[in-house]
Design a protein that fits this description.
By secondary structure, this protein is of the alpha/beta class. Helices cover 39% and strands 12% of the residues. The chain has 15 helices and ten strands. The chain has a ten-stranded mixed β-sheet. Helix 7 (192-202) links the parallel strand 5 and strand 6 (206-211). The two termini are 29 Å apart.
Length: 422
């Protein structure tokens, strides 16, 4: 899963002190009900997407009994059903799982279920489930057919655009809200107007972007360019798309802007938070009960220095044991060192709170590093564009403000902050 594992309506993040972080707060549980995916995207990093194993209901029950028993559950937990294709498991699986979770849920904890799906399996039965349980839906759609079908193919090599759009129309006809997640290739970065026109014509009003990146065994052609070249191209795309979307009013949510805005303009004294850098704040569980934390992409990966990134198995270990194993691990040690390095050396730390550990590992070869192309695109570029727009707005009020240049520390060197950036 590339990109930030968040969706419209996700709870705001605020920084917790290292002392408080010794007592976890579980904010998001990412569940892989099956590793299997019914399609075969060229940029997919998942190693087990041909594995048809489906999580046992006893594993679901054990997982959430531990989450609720621990006392570590946030006031609202997002349960993201993800992996290969979550809808490869049947509707009946989720009816049983959701009911079991609801029976165990403490009255002071809210649970919000979400799916990230390729949309090809959506039908009326799925829509009934989504409506009954108010499930958040993200559909992977890379834009117009030529762009989408280039990478998102069936196992026989055919494009999936028509089937994905049929799923989207089914959601729309049954009143199920959704957002789309689009992976931007080198070609689509040059087509902001065409991308916007496509979403508007399709009646899509909530959009999230991931720039195609290198993860796992997949190497993106985009990353043959320098970090500054990618930054410049994405900034031009996002500026144009955002400004025209706001002017048109039909695309109402652009994740890259709308989820960064409250982090840039947050109340004084509210430091940033990044749940990818906190033990168990993001709890990741595969279909066999194996548990990891921090970046969800680590689940299923292997590395010479860190092994398989697993901290235990929920069918065997308690969350207390899994948390203790995390605190004693080289994984936690090095991710914490990387977060401290970001805090001391990057002027965007107040927005991102430490970056994405998995991207530090894939791009820089170590969790202890700082800036990546991923954080440049997801944190630095949106922050620059928001401050640029604020300066223009301030100038329209006073007639005196100048437009501040973007922060220039793509290599995470310290730089003076504009006064409005906390």
């Amino acid at each position: 899963m590339t990109g930030e594992p968040t969706c419209p309506g996700a709870p705001p993040e605020t920084r917790r002190s290292p002392e408080i972080c010794m007592v976890p707060e579980i904010c998001m549980v990412i569940v892989q009900p099956t590793g299997f995916c019914n399609i075969d995207c060229s940029y997919c990093y998942l190693p087990d997407r041909t594995d048809r194993h489906v999580m046992a209901q006893t594993t679901v029950a054990r997982l959430f009994s531990e989450v609720f028993r621990s006392g570590w559950a946030s006031r609202e937990i997002i349960v993201l059903w993800h992996a290969g294709e979550p809808m490869a498991a049947p509707v009946s699986f989720y009816r049983e799982a959701f009911a079991a979770i609801e029976r165990m849920r403490p009255p002071d904890v809210a649970v919000k279920h979400s799916f990230q799906t390729n949309g090809t399996l959506v039908n009326i039965d799925w829509c009934r489930l989504f409506q009954e349980w108010n499930v958040g839906i993200g559909v992977s759609l890379d834009g117009p057919q030529a762009l989408h079908d280039r990478n998102r193919k069936t196992r026989s090599g055919r494009g999936t655009f028509d089937r994905t759009m049929a799923g989207i129309r089914c959601l729309q006809q049954n009143g199920v809200p959704f957002h789309v997640l689009s992976v931007l290739s080198g070609e689509s970065l040059s087509l902001p107007d065409e991308m916007l026109a496509f979403y508007e014509q399709a009646g899509i009003d909530k959009v999230c972007f991931n720039v195609e990146e290198s993860e796992g065994s997949y190497v993106s052609e985009l990353f043959t360019a320098t970090r500054e070249e990618i930054r410049t191209r994405f900034a031009a795309f996002l500026r144009r798309f955002w400004h025209r979307a706001r002017a048109g009013g039909r695309v109402r949510f652009v994740r890259e802007i709308d989820q960064v805005l409250p982090r840039v303009f947050r109340p004084d004294g509210m430091p940033p938070r990044n749940i990818q850098c906190e033990p168990l704040a993001m709890l990741n569980v595969d279909s066999r009960g194996n548990v990891s934390t921090f970046s969800p992409e680590l689940l299923g990966m292997k590395n010479a220095d860190y092994g398989d990134f697993l901290l235990g198995n929920i069918n065997i270990n308690t969350l207390d044991e899994i948390h203790a194993a995390c605190l004693q691990s080289a994984l936690y040690r090095d991710i914490s060192a990387g977060t401290r390095a970001c805090a001391s050396g990057c002027s965007y730390f107040s927005v991102c709170g430490g970056g994405s550990p998995v991207n530090k590992l894939f791009e820089n070869g170590s969790f202890t590093g700082t800036a990546t192309s991923f954080c440049t695109l997801t944190q630095m570029v949106p922050t620059d564009l928001i401050l640029e727009a604020y300066d223009r707005l301030e100038q329209s009020w006073t007639g005196t403000a100048s437009i501040a240049p973007p922060l220039s520390n793509a290599s995470a060197e310290a730089a003076p902050l504009p006064s409005r950036l906390p």
